[in-house]
Amino acid sequence: MQRRLVLVRHGQSEWNLKNLFTGWKDPDLTERGVEEAKAAGRRLKAEGLRFDVAFTSRLRRAQRTGQLLLAELGQSGVETIEHEALNERDYGDLTGLNKDEARKSFGEDQVLLWRRSYDVPPPGGESLKDTVARVLPYYVQEILPRALRGEQTLVTAHGNSLRALIMVLEGLTPETLLKRELHTGAPIVYDLEADATVSAVRDLAASA
User: Which of 39, 97, 112, 198 has its CA 20 to 30 A from that of 3?
Assistant: First the structure.
């Protein structure tokens, strides 16, 4: 039985372009982001991949990425499940601030601590540890069982919510997880064993 899970970070959003902390705010994709999503679909099509189920967040940049990707595959009718558990990390009081302006207001070291530590949240927001605690139960209860049944499973979500899944799939520590960069619109393909361990992983950004 083939058990395949594909993760895709959404294409560039309007707030990515403006260098703003986005979190749970809901900007749309830029023109570049639309093209990144379509390109992801073309890469997956070239690999011969098709999907039985798709999961995404409640935020439209992730939803549109999935829609555009599936349209490229001719699979717009695939069952798609939206859930806020897959939303981006909540940046709290940093949300909407330009990252350079935030450094001037709070100091370079403080902003770096909020962005790159595992368990220190920004004021009113989530740490990466908090995000992992939100995402993983949903993965275990809803996403993983579908993949283990042999359903080809797509997840289009966000940099930090996907890092939570990658932490488990690739066996990363909190320290190595923080260094894991995810390109926008770049599919990562995991082949799973029956015990949910990974037998093979391919980053299609590397082969683009």
Answer: 39
- Indicate which residues carry an active-site annotation: 10, 88
pTM above 0.70, yes or no: yes
Task: Say whether 19 counts as a known binding-site residue.
Answer: no
Q: d(Cα 28, Cα 15) in Å, to the nearest integer?
A: 8
Q: For 169-187, how does the pLDDT look when each residue is reduced to its tens digit (9 = 90+)? A: 999 999 898 888 899 999 9
Q: pLDDT per residue over 53-78, tens digit each?
A: 999 999 999 999 999 999 999 999 99
Pairing between β-strand 188-192 and β-strand 4-9 as defined by DSSP bridges: antiparallel
Is 13 marked as binding a ligand? yes
Beta bridge partners of 188: 7, 203
Rounded-to-5 percentages of helix, strand, coil across the chain: 45, 15, 40
- Residue ranges per structural domain of the chain: 4-203
Query: Does the annotation list 124 as a binding residue?
Result: no
H or E stretch including 201?
Answer: strand 198-203
